[in-house]
Design goal:
385 residues; mainly alpha; 18 helices; disordered N terminus; membrane; transmembrane helix; UCP028704_OpgC
Length: 385
């Protein structure tokens, strides 16, 4: 719940958001190819949260930056519902990604390892009855593991007009209500239903909305040239202390053992709800939520981050973050292709490295191509008639 640009000019682009979103995309791609040595170097190995939490938070920021000004100056109904166009784009991209995954597994399921993976990833039912699962897949009623985050964004963008309207009028009330909803959903463990199989959504939008709302309020504040949360020395010290504790917890067995036992005692004898004592990702329980918020707040106070984000040396990462949707969609398909390749071949460090390196090169190419398309469109629209 911290923005990444204090006193930023309302018309300028903050490259820190694009840079961090690009970093998150790279880590998500690596994590979506499990079993490689390289996943040991992603952020989830140094704290409670991972790239998904950061990406949702920054997506909320981007939403506040892109659509917030319209609501700040009293939007008409057409302007107010612009996020729904984005939701539609997210939907058809998700459907395309799912269709490509189904085609990939239909072509390779003869391999026993791939068939076993299809069961684990919740793909097997769609392979057995492709026509029958067409509607559930298209309506987000059936979801595949590692390809289930875009449905979350679709729902969040459908909610965005109402959230933005509340954000510009009653920001603190919205944040309080968002936290209450997050706590209540986690407390009763409400799950978004799926069909025809009752698996439930892995990314529960009623829980994950808390990160989206925090990011949205941050983005709107950036547009207004202010911070949503001011920098306080004590708050920074608490944030860094928590981040260090989380890193030690994940990396040092003794710390994890004592920490886990302490949380168990709080749950069993002090009757703390699991919302505060568990690390469940579906509901983004408190340790994960506090970790990503502390990380965002701490990073927002680092002047070095702006210097790094503006450096030409990281322009490629910034480009990934700027064109996050085509990059993420492509990375999801590539990650599944890499998973299939790993399943069909003996374990190999060099194969893993080649798959990751080749995939990243493709992602950079997609971002570069998409950036060229946008620049060409802008030049065409700027030409005098």
């Amino acid at each position: 719940m911290a923005e990444l640009a204090a006193q930023a000019a309302t018309h300028s682009r903050d490259y820190r958001i694009d840079f961090l979103r690009g970093v998150a995309l790279v880590m998500i791609f690596i994590n979506h190819i499990p079993g490689t040595v390289w996943e040991n170097f992603t952020s989830r190995n140094f704290g409670f949260s991972d790239g998904a939490e950061g990406f949702v938070l920054m997506s909320g920021m981007a939403t506040g930056l892109a659509y917030g000004p319209v609501f700040l100056r009293a939007a008409n109904w057409r302007q107010a519902f612009r996020p729904w166009r984005r939701a539609f784009t997210l939907w058809w991209v998700h459907v395309l990604v799912v269709a490509l995954i189904v085609a990939l597994f239909l072509a390779t399921q003869h391999d026993p390892a791939v068939a076993k993976m299809a069961v684990k990833r919740n793909i097997a039912p769609a392979l057995e009855d492709t026509f029958g699962f067409g509607l559930p897949l298209a309506t987000l009623g059936h979801q595949f593991a590692y390809a289930d985050i875009l449905p979350l964004y679709v729902v969040l963008m459908l909610w965005a007009p109402a959230l933005l309207a509340l954000a510009v009028r009653w920001p603190r009330a919205l944040m309080a209500g968002s936290l209450v909803l997050w706590f209540g959903v986690g407390l009763i463990r409400y799950t978004m239903p799926t069909w025809p199989l009752s698996n439930g959504w892995f990314f529960n939008p009623f829980s994950w909305q808390v990160l989206f709302v925090a990011g949205m309020l941050t983005g709107i504040a950036i547009r207004q040239g202010r911070r949503w949360l001011p920098i306080r020395t004590w708050a920074l010290r608490v944030s860094w202390a928590f981040l260090i504790l989380a890193a030690l917890w994940v990396q040092v067995g003794v710390v994890a053992s004592y920490g886990g036992h302490t949380l168990w005692l709080l749950h069993e004898y002090a009757h703390f709800p699991s919302v505060f004592t568990s690390f469940e990702k579906s509901y983004v329980f408190a340790p994960r939520l506090l970790h990503i918020l502390a990380l965002a707040y701490a990073l927002s106070a680092l002047p070095l981050l702006k210097t790094v984000a503006n450096s030409p040396k990281v322009a490629g990462i910034v480009l990934l973050g700027r064109h996050s949707l085509p990059v993420f969609a492509t990375s999801t398909v590539l990650a599944y292709g890499a998973q299939v390749a790993k399943a069909m071949n003996p374990p190999s460090f060099w194969l893993d490295t080649a798959l990751l390196a080749g995939g990243l090169l493709i992602l950079f190419a997609v971002a570069w191509w998409r950036d060229g398309q946008k620049r060409a469109a802008q030049l065409k629209s700027a030409r005098p008639v």
